[in-house]
Amino acid sequence: MKKAILLFISLFLIAAFYSCVEPDNNSSGSSEASDNLSENDESTMESSFEKSENEVSVSSEDSSKTNLSINDIEDIEQLGLTKEDERYLLIKAFLNGDTAVMEEKGCLEKGVLDDYKTLKIGAYTIYPRDDYTVIFSFDIIESGLDTMPVGEHTVLVESPYDTYFTTYNKIYDEASAAQYALFEWDVFYKICDYSDPASLTGEQKEDYISSLTEYVLWSKSEFTLDEFQEYAYKISGLKDIIPSDDYLCDGLYSVHRCGGIMYSYEVIDEKTENGITTVTIQFYADWAETIKSHVIEYKLKQIDEDLIFLSSDYVYESDHEPLIY
Questions:
Q1: Which of 46, 167, 228, 280 is 20 to 30 A from 30, alpha carbon to alpha carbon?
Q2: Same structural domain, 299 and 260
Q3: For residue 61, is it within any domain?
């Protein structure tokens, strides 16, 4: 009996051995299939991942403009805002033609938005961009304002301090050397004639020396008094100019490059003729660049590597002063 059992076990083990060896004849093919499967799986996963990313992207975009958007200002709470929110109050004032409220919230001069009263608004959409900004798209169906003609418009509604409309996705051209020079001369929005520095007296001369000092000190980080006077003489022909002590630190003069006054504006023309560069700038009286202020023309002259400011004057003088911030 024991022999029978041992014989049975032996036969069973032999059968098991051959059953294990048989698949080895196809082991190479199985490996390739496995590799191909892995590659296919990986490719499929990458494809699925890309598709998933696209779906998420589209979904997110749809979410911001549909699921998280409203077409009635009274539904503002659906965006997580309240009816005490300054952005809600500003948009409501715009829809109601209440320009006085808009001016107050944006710290604008009284009456500057009066032309908004000519606008008739059709359909609109509101959706949040971030914690402080709401995107407001609207159709204008009637307009007496050339900067806001009939058609679709989009603005940003910014908060939490002053609350106002500002431009949305506007692309500005890179500033030219002449435009940078206007900042360096500190003559933005000044009406003046510095074409003959030697003839200037009194307050005009003081203003010129102040502008000249700014320009010279912008050219490099620090100057000794002798270096400054040499450079200033080269540009202006004036000798022995002494900058204000406001620019003096540890015996050297330098310009303060931290902030400054900014204007709402757009460069509308620049041309160079006979060595004179003329830059024409349209200023605006509001954040969204919809209310035109003055148009000012600036003239500069190239001398070696320097752009020397000559003069500025009005092309058009508006009732509204430029927005300064």
A1: 46
A2: yes
A3: no
Q: What is the pLDDT of residue 221?
A: 78
Establish if 129 belongs to a structural domain.
Answer: yes
Q: Are residues 196 and 312 in the same domain?
A: yes
Contacts of 177 by beta carbon, 8 Å cutoff, 6+ apart: 307
Tell me the residue type at 85: D
Tell me the pTM. Answer: 0.74
pLDDT digits (tens, 9 = 90+) for 262-280: 778 999 999 999 999 999 9
Is residue 202 domain-shared with residue 277, that is, in the same domain? Answer: yes
How far CA 56 is from CA of 62, 131, 287, in Å, comes to: 10, 22, 34
Is the bond into 160 cis (omega within 30 degrees of 0)? yes
- Residue 107 Ramachandran class (φ > 0 left, ψ -120 to 50 alpha, else beta): left
Q: Are 77 and 83 in contact (CB under 8 A)?
A: yes
246: phi then psi, degrees, rounded to nearest 5: -60, -25
